């Protein structure tokens, strides 16, 4: 399979190996389907338990995952997944791919397509028929994306990430609240209201033991959620997350750059040149200095 075909089919994962005759037509569930066959390998062969790198092959097993349809025909990916044995610690593991979640029959791409269709307010039955899946599958995808299961009020992570985001107009001030496990990145809950009083009531539903477990509250610099520490998470301290620090630095740096630009006299040819450079190479100024290629821009004598 050449690179362009891989891109077209979204099979760019380098762990996938395809032979010359990778496509066949097969009958599946009384329908003719596209069957793409390949092999899934682990290029590094590194043991996830101990980090040993010279693991040996230990047979294969076959999985079949459903991909988004191609040319109105259901399409499946049949993979021979390689298994490996670690000679150091004796554990076995198999090759994985980012295309499919473990123990799941649908590819991530197909799940996203179903989720997008659900957003369009189409009937579940119609979506199921369109993607050649059962209505139950559509329901499961909906559940996995909306996190509609009840949160566990007896458990909270050590590092809790909180933030707000603009959502539907039915929410208070059009803003919602989201909290997630900072380490596993798993969403814990989404609330339609970000006001402190509502949040206190919400978090008080968690057991005292669970709340005491929270050691770090990760948030942006402007948020007023610090108040939650006193009442809800007495053992926690506030951590400003990296994303917001970088965002803040970038914004401040850009404001400074624009301020400097505006002080330059544009009728003066030398200053006008400096103005153009500051305006044109803004990306370059934000770049990590270790990533800069000095040779390439040397002749420009950038400021
Ligand atoms: Zn090992």
- Overall structural class, as computed from helix and strand content, comes to alpha/beta
Give the cofactors and ligands.
zinc ion
How many structural domains are formed by the residues?
4
Report low-confidence residues grouped into runs of 5 or more: none
Q: Biggest sheet, in brief?
A: 6 strands, mixed
Task: Tell me what portion of residues adopts beta-strand conformation.
Answer: 25-35%
Secondary-structure element sequence? HEEEEEEHHHEEEHHEHEHHHH
Number of strands: 11
Outline type: extended
Task: Provide the gyration radius in Å.
Answer: 26 Å
What's the tally of helices?
11
* Integer average pLDDT: 85
Distance between the termini: 49 Å
Helix content: 25-40%
Q: What this model shows, in words?
A:
With 303 residues, the protein is α/β, with parallel strands linked by helices. The chain is 33% helix and 25% strand. Strands 1, 2, 3, 4, 5 and 6 form a six-stranded mixed beta sheet that branches. A five-stranded mixed beta sheet has the order 9-8-7-10-11. The protein starts with a helix and ends in a 6-residue tail after the last helix. Zinc ion (ZN) binds at residues 47, 49-50, 52, 86, 88-89, 91.
